[in-house]
Amino acid sequence: MPRACGVQSSMTEVVNAVSVDRARREFLKTCMGLAAVAGLSGCAPLLAKSRLAKLLVAEPSPDEYRPVLKALLETVLPFGHPQFPLSREAMFARFDALFSLEQEARLAPMRRGLMLFDETSLFPEALGAVRDEERRALQAYPANDPEMVERQLDQKNAQDKKLLDFFLKKQGIGAVRFTEMKPADRKEYLWLWSQSGFGLKRQFYRTAKAVIMVSAYSQPELWKSIGYQGPFPDRG
Amino acid sequence: MRRVECDILIIGSGAAGGVLAATLAEATGKRIVLVEKGGHFGKEFFTQREWDANALYAGSGARATSDGSIPVRGGECVGGGTTVNIALCFDPVRDVWEGWKKDFGVKGFSFQPGTDDYGVKDLNMADCLAQVRGRINVHTPPDDQVNGNNRVLETGCRAMGFSSKHFELNMRECRQCGFCAQGCAYDSKQGTAVTFIPDALAKGVTLVHHCDIERLEWNKTQGGMVVKGAVGTVRATTPGSRPNAMPPGPIQFAGKLVILCCGAVESPSLLMRSGHPDPFGTLGRGLILHPSLPIVGVLDHEIGNYRGISGTIYSDHFHRSHGFYLECLFSHPVYGSVLLPGFGGEHFELLLKYRSLAGFGAMLIDEVDPENRVVWDAAKGKASIRYRLTEGDKRRMRFAAKTGVETMFAGGAREVLLPSEERLGPLPYPRFRSREEAVHCSELLFTPHQTTVTSAHCQATVKMGEDPGRSMVNSRGESHFMRNLMVCDSSVFPTSCGANPMLSILTMARYQGRRVAAELARYGL
Ligand SMILES: Cc1cc2nc3c(=O)[nH]c(=O)nc-3n(C[C@H](O)[C@H](O)[C@H](O)COP(=O)(O)OP(=O)(O)OC[C@H]3O[C@@H](n4cnc5c(N)ncnc54)[C@H](O)[C@@H]3O)c2cc1C
User: Mutate which of A1, A12, A15 to disrupt the B interface (most B C-beta within 10 Å)?
Assistant: First the structure.
């Protein structure tokens, strides 16, 4: 198949830029939901007031959110596995290329989303936006009357509290931050997010996993280790 | 603003739009303009990389229900869905159409060959279907083109005592690369972009791509509302696309007859944002998605899976009794890694067995629920797709999941997984180690963002029927509320068309095209 290779590859880059943009948009949306803090009242007792205030008001610095991102990548991808071909450095570089957290102002919610994820003790709290989003989803169907909706929201809250308590007891740890946990605890904590009663938290899990998988499995090194030969030779 | 005048304006160049353009060009000498939002890409553009192919999809591949939980895939390029689909062909399901005649007063669409609907010689579904099948080369590929993955479904069905069948496909000399959904790099797949649309262009149709129609324009006259055209914007041409007939910039089209073919998400949105009347609140409601649950098997040996024709085997064993199909399909690694449950070492171990994985989908013929709908979200400037499985559909989907899991085991799988992180009884997530464990499918809740069902078959949002209280367009596809405006695409089906929809849409478009050509005077043409 005759092809103008130069044209093809530059075209690929253009398209790539466009679609990466899309993938991260969904993740960003989720983080935005998490980070929107209107009505965040009930959680003060759980966190030292000053730390909570800082979390909600101050713009997190790279020194603060980078370790969270790193811990997340290390939890989702098995760098220790003998057959996993990518180094941590290569993967972080790849992720940075797709999500330049430092450079782009509009990725700010993602930075704060990561900080909120790090705060284990906040997990069961009904952050205003999380609850609002869930309420909207429940209200979209007229069969759910307002009282029922609020009851369901309370139940979801209770469910998340139980999940966290169970997790802490099982792992035998206090509510330390995600970044301070041992790898096995981190795995369980991330899993907790997939089990939440609130859609937005499950979506955080799902989209965080998706953007990391996408940035990993679009790389030919990984194709090789799983035996995927990619495009037909004439399209290589 | 640039102004383009024509007799017939067709908006959307997918399954329906492509056939209409060719049929009308072939049968009339009218000036026809075909407008498409996406780019015009040829085989040289298709790189067989999943990531690049997003350029061919609605929302760059990210279109989903409003909560983000169900991907609603659709093509957004010349050829629409037929450029990215996997070429599975089902003839229009006659019972379904007969049901529409009974329940919605739909007229015409005779299935008897030789019938003259509307007094037009040989205007009937049978003849139109034959014409379409011929043009896109619908045929059953030989048995030696069934790859290992499809054999797993075939074997499984046989062992379970379920009937299985070979798909008919619209292809020509398929190279079996396995990249249908990334756009066919060999022009083998006979979508409209390589069949009806070139026919239309050869007959003088003007194709304007990269052009997003923002709204329809209409006049209010004594006799009611009459459509007069549409306005939109031509974007700069994407590198790699074929050249465009119009330069970038705002554009206004004037046409005597306007035919909407934007698919079941965009056709209702365009009507809503154009202020099309909706006196009975039916517009956009009753959305059908054909939700599909992927079922993944792990075998103890390598099979051909991602190479070869994606879908050659299916089972309609449960179609009549439970309204679902088992249809073969397989994912490349990016999509596959996102679908597989979990993360970390366990997830990677599964991907290390990539070549020993098998996949098929349980595709549900979902029921109409008016709460499931498309809404134009003016603030966001895009369609909002609201959908959840009804309780009845969840029940059927649980049964379909259990049946699918058992079939996968019967086909030779050692383990079976669902794309889900739901806890099922003793299972932390749906990873079944034995066939007996399939009973836990009865506990599936299909919780959004926990269990992934996917959709590629949106339909039924601008329903057809003779009662304006329950439908938006009549049996001719003409709006009940605006003259000289037709809708002809997957959105006019009153309910699910009962199978993968492409061939039903193509046949209907052929039918309406031939009818319009014989009834030009109706539209002042
Ligand atoms: C990945 C995938 C696989 C599939 N596999 C199969 C299969 O194997 N068999 C099968 O039968 N069906 C399959 N389908 C479904 C089938 O392709 C669709 O049902 C069919 O294409 C719908 O036809 P349509 O004419 O209604 O709309 P489409 O084919 O979607 O065409 C609509 C066109 O209108 C354009 N448009 C939308 N809005 C505007 C606007 N405002 N201005 C201008 N243009 C606009 C869109 O860009 C699009 O090109 C698949 C779909 C997908 C996405």
Answer: A15
